[in-house]
Automatic annotation (TrEMBL):
SUPFAM superfamilies hit by this protein: EF-Tu/eEF-1alpha/eIF2-gamma C-terminal domain (SSF50465), P-loop containing nucleoside triphosphate hydrolases (SSF52540), Translation proteins (SSF50447), Winged helix' DNA-binding domain (SSF46785)
Alphabetical keyword list: Cytoplasm, Elongation factor, GTP-binding, Nucleotide-binding, Protein biosynthesis
Localization of this protein: Cytoplasm
Descriptive protein name: Selenocysteine-specific translation elongation factor
Protein biosynthesis found in the keyword field: yes
UniProt cross-references to PANTHER family, sorted A to Z: ELONGATION FACTOR TU, MITOCHONDRIAL (PTHR43721:SF22), ELONGATION FACTOR TU-RELATED (PTHR43721)
Signal peptide: none
Tr-type G domain sequence ranges: 1-170
One Gene Ontology molecular-function label: translation elongation factor activity
Length: 640
């Protein structure tokens, strides 16, 4: 269990921990000189003989050091709210309480300190103040313990309450990738660099590889301590010290606020969608796109906060919002954020991370807000997934969901109507009905294309995608086409796609002219006539000849290598077969050798090679070309 203090300055937080643990802590010279806690202090002690070690985090109470208090409050299991009997509830008591409530800390105990300085009536009065303070929040009814750090009265009762809380503490889940928010980094003679923090998720073992900071520098865990004891592994909910090593790693490069995470989980982001709650004690409405300070883990980042359901938010209300951060953040779904004003003088409110990979566009659209509502209402990936998919026409990327929820895909329990579609850029998730509807839409679109362009065999893939204007990205669109081709619902002739029963229809005049032109192209072989020459030979207008050949190109009967120069499909296939043979095992093609094989001039042979570059049969590398063996033309030529 990790216990953190909270409370106003000089209310006895540090002295109380000394009375509970018998340890004076690690006060710095400046703290001793000023008689106040400035930075975080750490203690580890067994509350009774034989009990497991409890970690204690002592936080500063002064308003100037709220940033340090926030760094210590993240990840604690129980907050020990300290209120001095002589002062009663003070401003920092209220702000610290608001912060720990926003962080979702599950348990709280209250220590009424300095009872030796006041009359019993005053103690009762302060207890009533505390009861009223807690009444409207999650810690209503929290046990209060009047005590004195000087006489020791009441300290043992508090210790017993802490022991009881430790026994009933719900263990944190250790599944998912390891996450550590670094609060200290220092160098130890003979060991090297050590970083400490509270493990927020997962587990880590000696020898593991992790990624450090915004840049994701790879580091190796040489050794570790868990709850101040040497261990071979540590897990979520423990105070952890890791001895790490990496090439050219210096302790000066590591700062409070840096993250250590599992390699697969590393995904820094600067746009986060959240459910934003403005504290009821605020005196003004919150304005859209206001500058703020955001605290997550031990990190403090400036940002703009964009409201997604309006232009203003009233005190005590909540709304979906998006953080536009000025530095990368390492967040996952369910993380608690604390938001302070742009001058870092007061706490405004906080919220829960819904999506750490928020979109830059259409963030206020109904479909996006429906996704955020599902994320807010659900406590697991499986519960949110149906609504996420239903409002994601382009499909969902599993890797992104793994990082969003910190859960690897092999632990998911997918519903039967969710399918995984393989694409060239990785898998996508769709609902079965959603994917079938996309296929039906594509076939309907192609049918409409045939009606509009009856003299064309069909569009190529990219033209069909533009014509269909479907919501999916190109990799998913290609998978859609490949499935339809595989099932026979779609056919292809070369690069042209069409419905199986569709045939391009030429007019009678076009067909008669083509019967004259086709033999001329085939007889000419590798040096066909230009458009003007074909027009002259057939006594046709040049414009009409050009239009016919472009129609035949769409029918895959000819190929336009350069403007007004068309090759018959059979001739082009013959040249492709020659290239495949010339490439040999090494796959290298020399332009001069190709020219000689065709028996035509260098300029024409280069034009043909450049056409092959464009359609993906070859790739130019300097003065050479390499065959792309995955090209359909190359595979066809290999069998000739």
């Amino acid at each position: 269990m990790i216990v953190g203090t909270a409370g106003h300055i000089d209310h006895g937080k540090t002295a109380l921990l000394e009375a509970l643990t018998g340890q004076a802590g690690d006060q710095r010279p400046e703290e001793r000189a000023r008689d106040m806690t400035i930075d975080l202090g750490y203690r580890y002690a067994a509350l009774q003989p034989g009990a497991p070690l409890t970690g204690f985090i002592d936080v500063p109470g002064h308003e100037r050091f709220i940033r340090n208090m926030l760094a210590g409050a993240q990840g604690i299991d129980l907050v020990l709210l300290v209120v001095a009997a002589d002062d009663g509830v003070m401003p920092q008591t209220r702000e610290h309480l608001a912060i720990v409530e926003l962080l979702g800390i599950p348990q709280a105990l209250v220590a009424i300190s300095k009872c030796d300085r006041v009359e019993p009536a005053r103690v009762s009065e302060v207890q009533a103040q505390v009861t009223e303070l807690l009444a409207r929040g999650p810690f209503a009814g929290a046990a209060q313990f009047p005590l004195s750090n000087v006489t020791g009265e009441g300290v043992d009762a508090l210790r017993q309450a802490l022991l009881q809380a430790q026994e009933t503490l719900a263990q944190r889940a250790v599944s998912g990738g390891f996450r550590l928010a670094i609060d200290r980094a220092f160098s130890v003679a003979g060991a090297g660099i050590v970083v400490t923090g509270t493990a927020l998720a997962g587990r880590v073992r000696q020898g593991d590889s992790l990624l450090l900071g915004h840049a994701g520098k790879p580091v190796r865990v040489r050794g570790l301590h868990a709850q101040n004891i040497t261990a071979s592994e540590a897990c979520a909910g423990q105070r952890v010290a890791l001895n790490i090593s990496a090439e050219r790693l210096a302790v000066e490069q590591i700062h409070r606020g840096d993250w250590l995470v599992a390699e697969w989980l590393f995904a820094p982001t600067q746009r986060v969608d959240m459910l934003w709650h403005l504290l009821p004690g605020e005196t003004r409405t919150f304005e859209h796109f206001s500058p703020v300070h955001v605290h997550l883990g031990t990190q403090d980042v400036t940002a703009r906060l964009a409201l997604l359901e309006g232009e203003r938010l009233a005190p005590g209300q909540q709304m979906f919002a998006q953080l536009l951060l000025n530095a990368p953040l390492q967040a996952v779904h369910g993380d608690r954020l604390v938001v302070r004003d742009h001058s870092a003088q007061r706490t405004l409110g906080g919220g829960t991370v819904l999506d750490p990979f928020a979109p830059a566009r259409q963030r206020r659209e109904p479909a996006r807000l429906a996704q955020l509502q599902a994320l807010a209402d659900s406590d697991s990936l499986e519960a949110a997934l149906p609504a996420l998919i239903a409002n994601s026409p382009a499909g969902l990327v599993p890797q992104r969901l793994e990082r969003q929820f910190n859960r690897l895909r092999d632990s998911w329990q997918l519903a039967q109507d969710v399918i995984v579609i393989a694409t060239r850029q990785g898998p996508l998730l769709f609902a079965t009905g959603q994917w079938q509807a996309l296929k039906a839409q594509l076939l309907e679109t192609l049918g409409r294309f045939h009606e509009l362009e009856p003299d064309q065999l069909g569009p190529d893939r990219d033209r069909l995608r533009r014509f269909a204007a479907m919501p999916v990205e190109r990799p998913a669109f290609i998978s859609l086409i490949e499935e339809l081709l595989g099932s026979g619902q779609l056919a292809s002739s070369g690069q042209w796609l069409h419905l199986p029963g569709h045939q391009a229809r030429l007019t009678a005049a076009d067909d008669a002219l083509w019967q004259q032109v086709q033999p001329l192209l085939l007889q000419a072989g590798f040096d066909p006539p230009w458009v003007r020459d074909l027009a002259r030979l057939t006594h046709t207008e040049e414009a009409a000849m050009r239009l016919l050949l472009r129609k035949m190109a769409r029918l895959a009967q000819v190929h336009q290598v350069v403007r007004d120069l068309f090759y018959a499909d059979a001739t082009l296939g013959q040249m492709a077969s020659m290239l495949v043979r010339m490439a040999g095992d090494e796959g290298v093609i020399q332009a001069a050798a190709f020219r000689d094989a065709l028996g035509i001039g260098r300029k024409r042979s280069i034009q043909i090679l450049e056409y092959f570059d464009r359609i993906g049969l070859t790739r130019r590398l300097g003065e050479q070309r390499r065959l792309r063996r995955d090209s359909a033309l190359a595979q066809a030529g290999a069998h000739d």
